[in-house]
Each structure stands twice: as structure tokens, then as C-alpha cells.
């Protein structure tokens, strides 16, 4: 057997106490399309960042065509022939197609651009992909998403790459464009380029890839020929962990529905979401990143526009409402993005906690600072927040403690309907367990909780019922006992009908 | 919830706590120290100037002559004399009076900057409102009516800024840059491209200096600025509105998530700030005793500098009224000191430029220190 194009052995990477990659080994040969499969958080993106030079591995070896390869920076990795195509397109939207293709690799002499040579190079790259119909002079933001992706691939080709990494390339493509992309991938494969193909959609991987490697919790747990593999085997490899005993389960007494969605739709997601959340119920929403779960709660909360459908809160229809209204109705949202939306990092714990509800700490609009501090101190005690003082900026706390403050805001507000979007993202196991416990207590006290998570064990461990979201559509919500990790994953990765999407430009 | 795991990582030690307190103290005192430094600097310079004059009278030359003169005539005494001259009641009154216009505008600018915005149209607004006031005086309106109308004129400009910024979600920088031209042009148009000279009237007394050698009585304008500063400090620190301003500047997405009507608040913020700029225009009118459409050119930069020296960050979410007031004082002391030293105008400009960069540089250092202390 010839020397593999790329070989990784025992690659490890940790961030502080978190082991993003424990031990990853796999190899890719020339002219091979290799599927890299794993759940959200399994370590795929970390691995790709190591390969593309954004992170330095702590241990392990990488061989590129048999020679040791340690990418120092993304630029260095690109010079060595590793090209990366990200899920989010990385184009300069106002520049032309040609300028985007040659960005960073402009043929030049003493800073002067060589115009005819540029056209030639960019045209050749597009022709290679059989997409020479795309006009070179058009600003790239006037083209469709699919064409933009082709431009991105063409840009990668200009550098004569040895390895191309594609991260979820079809997540924003229509069915037809996906087929075109597959053509491009096959053409590249036949030219001897090796491609690492990351995708959640196993059917796609099966169609386009020769071999696969499954990642789970930062380890490569299995690999093989795609032709011999069975989907359920791969799913078992992806999941394969036992549920630990950190999920409290008390009996919840269900009341009447307090928060109902009927065929709610937004632009572009969600497309169709219906559910009824009852008092004392914990309703989980599973799904892949990008399935439209966050968009659903944001739309319901008045942060994004609702294009269709009805929202019923506490028995009364109120589809369009500002966030302020929702808070007044007793609905509270915990943002999935703690740093950018959830918290004011440079403001105090006290202000972050009481921002939605100053009433208990103020009179006639004047805040009683001492009362505010005391109250915050009480919440800090109840939630076990480790911090020096309530007037400390919240950005100084650890992730778990920050999250507890963000949850504390909902508790302080005396929320009745909790919309929790990824409440345990990026926090340590201890804090996670405390959050589960809290959610359980809330349900016991008759609160309604909508729990969005990408981490299946916690959904199965905590929720009373679960719905799965796939490409903007929520499946039927069923009791947790009727779900298994396998059935959730297969619902999340496309047991639903693939609907053609309009490309947005 | 009960604590499940008793690790001692978070409450690591008392050392970092003490460091943090020091950093915090330094943070609060920073602008004060800067003010003291500037006053001391000018006192010393004045002292040295005195020594120089003595050197001339005794025909001493160069460094040796300098040290000789200092030995004969103790230097500290000269500095003290310098301080006496510089910080004398009369001069202090001049400095305070000169501060009024920048200080009152800085009150408005502080709210805007803390909320994450900026206003470049202040100078033009001050000129416009002073012309409005002068024109109304010329038409024999009552002084009280003129005062109210001048302030409200500033409010209208602020409302215009705010409604475009909030309504069309445009960048404050661009909107107020445009307003800078519009207000300046409107001022010149209204004044017929010349100064408007009302007859002697009570408005002139607001900023009049009487008893030039003593600190008291201070002009009314100083007391107005002082009173408003206290009110604004309370509003920013103690009211729900103040918290909202900080919230919007710190993280607009969070503010929106938490039900604050961000655009409505912004409209209100620019309107309120406009009222302060209108009041500044009134002070300007009173000081010059005429409405001049070309006055206060570039005033906004002095004001922004004052606010930033006072510890505000242009990215929003930080800043204080006290700091901005001290920043305004520092700017006035710099100008006044340079005048007393007889430095030419260009030197003043260079020095003020250097001080702004120094002040903000120190602020960055302070912040990185307090971040590192954690």
C-alpha cells in the first residue's frame, strides 16, 4: 500500500480541564473521500482546527505524505496544501467572484495585479469545477448560496491543495445543488485530491464517501469502508455511552397547557413547529445545530419575526409580542449564546440578575443598591454561584457560574414558562448537574420548561417528552419513554422528507 | 440547590482580592490623579518660569546658573508661588467658568457614550442654539422664555438625531456627522452669516465674572453645571433608566432580550443629551453676549476627550458623570495653564492631543491591570 496522504495518530488537545480531543487516529489516502462522523461536540471541529493550523495539538503526530506536519497557522497549513471549506461561507461579499477566488493568492509583481493572468487563473478554477457559467465580474453576494460555495471551493483549488476539508457543505443547499456539489466532489476525487467530508447526514456520506471514521467524546471509535458499513452500526458508534446518574427524576404533576405553538414559521427557519407545553412539564427539543431550534424560540420570544402560525400563552393568543411583553406574561428566555446575547459581561452580577425586573429593588424608578445587592446575594447562595461579590463584573466568573447568573435572572423574574436554549453548553459537569436539578425542581413547582439541547443523554435524562427538529420542522412530541438515542438521531438526520429550500442571496 | 463539589479553586486567595481592590481604587481615582498631576505640572512650570526671570535679573546662564539660582532661592517656594498663582481664587474661577460649556455638554455626551453611541454634532448644536437664543433676545422675548426655547432647540436637534439613529438603525457616527453640517448651516442661515448681537439683557449675567480676584461669587452657570452634574450622577447610578443606559451600551442584544425597548431608549437618550447641548448653547450665548454661528468649532472633540479621560469607553457600557466632569476640568486646566504660560495656540493643541492619548493609554493599562488581577 502506498503512503497515505494524511495520517493522524493519537492526536490530543485539551482546553484547561476539558479534553476536546483525547486520542484521534485516522488516515486518508489520495483520491479518497473520507467521512468524519460524530455528534455535536464530539470533537470534529476541534480536529479540523488542529489540521488547519488554528490550534496546536498537545500530543500525537500528523504525517502529510509521510513527512511530519505541524501546521503553525492557518496560512502555513494552506501553503502546505490543506484547504478548508467552512460551514459558514468565508467570502468577501462585496468583491467580485474573480477577486474572491484569488483572495490572498493574487498573481502580482511588486504589488501590481496582473489582470489577464488573474482572469485566466480564476476562470480555470471554475472550469475545473464545470461551473464556468458563473460570471467572474459579478459581486459574489449577488450569486446564490450554492454558487458562492462553488466560488469557495474554486478558491481552495487555486492553491493546488492536497487535502480539502469540507465542513457540513450541504447544510444550506437544496437537493439539486447538493447533487451538483457531489459531482464536484467526485471530480476532485478522480483528480487524486483527498477530501475529508464532515456531515451529520449519514445517507449523504454513504453516497459520496469511500471510507469513514466515527468520533465520540474526542476519540476515534471506529473506521472502515463505507460500502461495508450499516447505518445503525455507525449510529451505535456515535452514541455508545451510558447515561450517568446525574439526572434527577421526580414525579411532575402536569397542569393545563401554558405555552402553545401552532404551525409557527419564520424566515428562513423554523418552517413548521407545533407543540403544547404544560405546567409542570419539561419538554425537550432535540436536533442538529442549524435545525432551527434557536430560531423557533427567538421568534416566539419576539426577537425575530414570526411569519406564520399562532402562539398561545396562558390560554390567550398573542402571536406577535415584544420581548418585554413576553417577560410580562411570565415567559423567560435563556439565550444559547451566553457571551454575545445572554449576559452583559462587563456589568455586575446584580445588574445582570435584576435587569428584567427592577420592581423588587426600586421605588419610583430609583434603585435601592443595597437591596439589589442583598437580593442578588440570596440568588447566588441558592444557585451556588462562586463569586466574590454581587458587584463584580459577571465576565470574571467561570462559564458555569455565568450560566447560573443567567438562569438566576429568570428565577428573579419569577418566570412561569422557561425557554432554555442549550442551558448546559460550555459548562463543567458539576454545574450541569446543578442545572438539571434546578430544572427538575422548577417542574415540581409547576413551572413549564422548554429544554433545547444537542446533547441527547441530558434530554433523555431530564425531559418528560421530546420533539425532534429537522430542517426547520418539529416532529410530533412524544413521551420520553418512546424515544431512544438511536431513534432521536435518525429523526434528526433526515428521516423527515428533505424539502427543497429557496437559496437566499 | 446544594453545592455538590467543594473545590477551592474559585475563592482562590485573599491576595488577588486585595490587588483587585487596589486596582478598583486606582480606577476610581485615576481621573483625579490626572487632574492633580496637571495642576502640579503647571505650578512647577510657573515656578520654573519665575526662576528664569530671576536668572535673567542676576545674569545667570545655563543649567549651572539655574541650579545656582535655585540654591540661593529655594525652588519649592517658587513652585508654591506658582501654585498660588495658578490655583488662586481668581484663576480657579476663570477655569471653572471655562469648564461650564464643556462640562454641561459632557453630561449629555456621557449618557450617549455609555449607551454605546457618539454625537459629533455638539459644536454645531451649541452654535445653532446660541444663535436661536440671541435672535429671540433681539426680538424682545422675555429672558425666561429665551432660556427655555434655547434648551428646547437643542432638544429638537437631539430628537432628530435620535429618531434617525433609532428609527432607521443607522450608525450614530454617520448620522451626527451629517447633523454637524446641517446644524452649522442652519445656524449661519438663521444668523444671516454674521453674529447676532442682542442688547444688554439678563441672560448675559449667567456666565458673568464679578469680583475677578476672588473665588466667590461664582457665576450662576457654574452652579447650574454643578447641580445638573449631581442630578445626572444620581440618575446614572441610582435609577432604572441609568441601568438601562449601561445595559444598552454594554450589550444591546442582552438589553433587547431582557425586554428593554432599545430604540425607544436611544431616542430618549439623544433627546435628553440634546437638551444639555442646548443649555451649553445658552451658556455660550451668555459668555459671548452674542450669538455666533461659527463658535464652538470642534467643541465635540473636547467633550468626547473629557468623557474618555473620565474613564468611559467608546465601545459603551462604562463611564461615569464624576469622571467626565473631572475630564472637563482637566481640559480647562490645560487650556488655562497654557494661556498663563504664554504658550502659543499650536502648543496648546499639541499638548492637549498628547494628554488625550496619555489618558486613554493609562486607562487601557488600568483595565488590563484590573483584568490581570483576577
Quick tags:
heterodimer; A: 505 residues; alpha/beta; Rossmann fold; 3 domains; seven-stranded mixed sheet; six-stranded mixed sheet; 17 helices; 25 strands; B: 374 residues; mainly alpha; ABC transporter involved in vitamin B12 uptake, BtuC; 14 helices; disordered N terminus
Helix content of chain A: 25-40%
The largest sheet of chain A is:
7 strands, mixed
Principal-axes shape call of chain A: globular
Helix proportion range of chain B: over 70%
The CATH architecture designation of the largest domain in chain B is Orthogonal Bundle
Tally of extended strands of chain A? 25
Distance between the termini of chain B: 27 Å
Name the CATH homologous superfamily of the largest domain in chain A.
Answer: P-loop containing nucleotide triphosphate hydrolases
Percent in strands of chain B: under 5%
Provide mean pLDDT of chain B, rounded: 83
Give the total of domains of chain A.
Answer: 3
Q: How much of the polypeptide of chain A forms β-strand, as a percent range?
A: 15-25%
Give the largest interface pair and sizes: A-B, 44 and 32 residues
Please report the number of helical segments of chain B.
14
| CATH domain topology of the largest domain in chain A | Rossmann fold
Number of discrete helical segments of chain A: 17
Number of domains of chain B: 2
Could you give a short account of the major beta sheet of chain B?
Answer: none
CATH architecture descriptor of the largest domain in chain A: 3-Layer(aba) Sandwich
Amino acid at each position: 500500500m502506498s503512503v497515505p496522504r494524511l495520517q493522524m495518530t493519537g492526536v490530543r488537545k485539551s482546553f484547561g480541564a476539558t479534553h476536546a480531543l483525547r486520542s484521534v487516529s485516522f488516515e486518508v489516502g489520495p483520491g479518497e473521500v473520507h467521512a468524519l462522523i460524530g455528534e455535536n461536540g464530539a470533537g470534529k471541529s476541534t480536529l479540523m482546527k488542529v489540521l488547519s493550523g488554528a490550534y496546536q495539538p498537545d500530543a500525537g503526530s500528523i504525517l502529510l505524505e509521510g513527512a511530519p506536519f505541524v501546521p503553525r497557522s492557518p496560512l502555513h497549513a494552506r501553503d502546505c496544501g490543506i484547504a478548508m471549506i467552512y460551514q459558514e461561507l468565508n467570502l468577501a461579499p462585496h468583491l467580485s467572484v474573480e477577486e474572491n477566488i484569488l483572495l490572498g493568492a493574487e498573481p502580482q509583481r511588486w504589488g501590481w495585479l496582473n489582470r489577464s493572468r488573474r482572469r485566466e487563473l480564476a476562470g480555470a478554477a471554475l472550469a475545473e469545477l464545470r461551473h464556468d457559467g458563473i460570471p467572474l465580474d459579478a459581486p459574489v453576494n449577488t450569486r446564490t448560496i450554492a454558487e458562492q460555495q462553488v466560488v469557495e471551493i474554486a478558491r481552495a483549488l487555486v492553491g493546488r491543495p492536497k487535502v480539502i476539508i469540507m465542513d457540513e457543505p450541504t447544510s444550506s443547499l437544496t437537493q439539486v445543488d447538493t447533487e451538483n456539489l457531489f459531482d464536484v466532489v467526485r471530480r476532485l476525487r478522480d483528480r487524486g485530491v483527498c477530501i475529508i467530508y464532515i456531515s451529520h447526514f449519514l445517507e449523504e456520506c454513504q453516497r459520496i464517501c469511500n471510507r469513514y471514521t466515527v468520533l465520540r467524546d474526542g476519540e476515534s471509535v471506529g473506521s472502515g469502508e463505507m460500502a461495508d458499513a450499516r447505518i445503525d452500526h455507525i449510529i451505535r458508534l456515535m452514541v455508545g455511552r451510558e447515561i450517568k446518574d446525574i439526572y434527577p427524576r421526580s414525579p411532575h404533576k402536569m397542569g393545563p397547557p401554558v405555552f402553545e405553538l401552532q404551525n409557527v414559521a419564520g424566515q428562513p427557519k423554523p418552517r413548521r413547529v407545533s407543540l403544547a407545553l404544560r405546567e409542570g412539564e419539561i419538554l425537550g427539543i432535540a436536533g442538529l445545530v442549524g435545525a432551527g431550534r434557536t430560531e423557533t424560540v427567538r421568534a416566539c420570544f419576539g426577537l425575530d419575526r414570526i411569519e406564520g402560525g399562532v402562539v398561545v400563552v396562558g390560554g390567550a393568543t398573542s402571536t406577535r409580542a415584544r420581548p418585554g411583553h413576553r417577560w410580562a406574561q411570565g415567559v423567560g428566555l435563556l439565550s444559547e449564546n451566553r457571551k454575545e446575547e445572554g449576559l452583559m459581561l462587563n456589568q455586575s452580577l446584580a445588574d445582570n440578575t435584576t435587569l428584567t425586573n427592577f420592581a423588587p429593588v426600586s421605588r419610583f424608578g430609583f434603585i435601592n443598591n443595597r437591596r439589589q445587592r442583598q437580593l442578588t446575594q440570596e440568588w447566588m447562595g441558592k444557585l451556588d454561584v462562586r463569586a466574590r461579590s454581587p458587584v463584580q463584573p459577571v465576565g470574571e466568573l467561570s462559564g458555569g457560574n455565568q450560566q447560573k447568573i443567567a438562569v438566576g435572572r429568570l428565577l428573579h423574574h419569577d418566570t412561569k414558562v422557561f425557554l432554555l436554549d442549550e442551558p448546559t453548553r460550555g459548562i463543567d459537569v458539576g454545574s450541569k448537574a446543578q442545572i438539571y436539578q434546578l430544572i427538575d425542581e422548577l417542574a415540581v413547582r409547576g413551572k413549564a420548561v422548554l429544554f433545547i439541547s444537542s446533547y441527547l443523554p441530558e434530554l433523555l435524562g431530564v425531559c418528560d417528552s421530546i420533539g425532534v427538529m429537522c430542517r426547520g420542522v418539529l416532529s410530533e412530541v412524544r413521551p420520553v419513554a418512546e424515544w431512544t438515542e438511536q431513534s432521536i438521531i435518525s429523526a434528526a438526520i433526515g428521516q423527515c422528507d428533505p424539502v427543497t429550500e429557496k437559496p437566499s442571496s | 440547590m446544594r453545592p455538590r463539589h467543594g473545590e477551592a479553586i474559585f475563592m482562590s486567595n485573599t491576595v488577588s482580592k486585595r490587588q483587585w481592590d487596589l486596582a478598583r481604587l486606582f480606577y476610581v481615582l485615576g481621573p483625579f490623579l490626572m487632574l492633580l498631576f496637571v495642576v502640579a505640572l503647571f505650578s512647577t512650570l510657573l515656578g520654573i518660569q519665575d526662576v528664569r526671570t530671576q536668572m535673567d535679573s542676576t545674569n545667570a546662564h545655563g543649567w549651572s546658573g539655574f541650579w545656582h539660582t535655585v540654591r540661593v532661592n529655594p525652588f519649592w517656594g517658587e513652585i508654591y508661588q506658582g501654585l498660588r498663582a495658578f490655583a488662586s481664587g481668581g484663576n480657579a474661577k476663570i477655569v471653572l467658568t471655562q469648564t461650564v460649556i464643556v462640562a454641561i455638554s459632557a453630561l449629555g455626551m456621557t449618557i450617549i457614550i455609555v449607551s454605546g453611541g457618539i454625537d459629533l454634532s455638539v459644536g454645531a448644536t451649541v452654535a445653532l442654539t446660541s444663535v436661536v437664543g440671541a435672535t429671540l433676545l433681539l426680538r424682545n422675548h422675555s429672558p425666561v422664555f429665551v432660556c427655555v426655547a434655547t434648551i428646547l432647540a437643542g432638544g429638537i436637534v437631539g430628537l432628530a438625531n435620535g429618531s434617525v439613529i433609532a428609527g432607521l438603525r443607522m450608525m450614530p457616527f454617520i448620522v451626527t456627522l451629517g447633523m454637524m453640517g446641517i446644524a452649522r448651516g442652519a445656524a449661519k442661515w438663521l444668523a444671516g452669516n454674521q453674529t447676532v448681537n442682542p442688547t444688554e439683557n439678563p441672560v448675559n449675567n449667567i456666565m458673568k465674572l464679578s469680583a475677578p480676584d476672588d473665588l466667590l461669587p461664582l457665576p450662576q452657570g457654574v452652579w447650574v453645571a454643578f447641580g445638573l452634574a449631581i442630578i445626572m450622577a444620581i440618575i446614572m447610578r441610582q435609577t432604572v433608566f441609568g441601568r438601562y443606559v449601561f445595559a444598552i451600551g454594554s450589550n444591546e442584544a442582552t438589553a433587547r432580550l431582557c425586554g428593554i425597548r432599545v430604540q425607544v431608549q436611544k431616542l430618549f437618550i439623544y433627546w435628553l443629551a440634546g437638551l444639555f447641548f442646548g443649555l451649553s448653547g445658552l451658556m455660550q450665548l451668555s459668555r459671548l453676549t452674542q450669538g455666533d454661528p461659527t463658535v464652538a468649532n470642534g467643541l465635540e472633540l473636547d467633550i468626547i476627550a473629557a468623557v474618555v479621560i473620565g474613564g468611559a469607553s467608546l465601545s459603551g457600557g462604562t463611564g461615569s458623570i464624576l469622571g467626565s466632569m473631572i475630564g472637563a476640568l482637566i481640559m480647562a486646566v490645560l487650556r488655562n495653564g497654557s494661556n498663563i504660560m504664554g504658550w502659543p495656540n499650536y502648543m496648546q493643541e499639541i499638548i492637549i492631543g498628547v494628554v488625550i492619548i496619555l489618558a486613554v493609554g493609562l486607562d487601557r493599562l488600568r483595565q488590563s491591570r484590573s483584568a490581570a488581577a483576577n
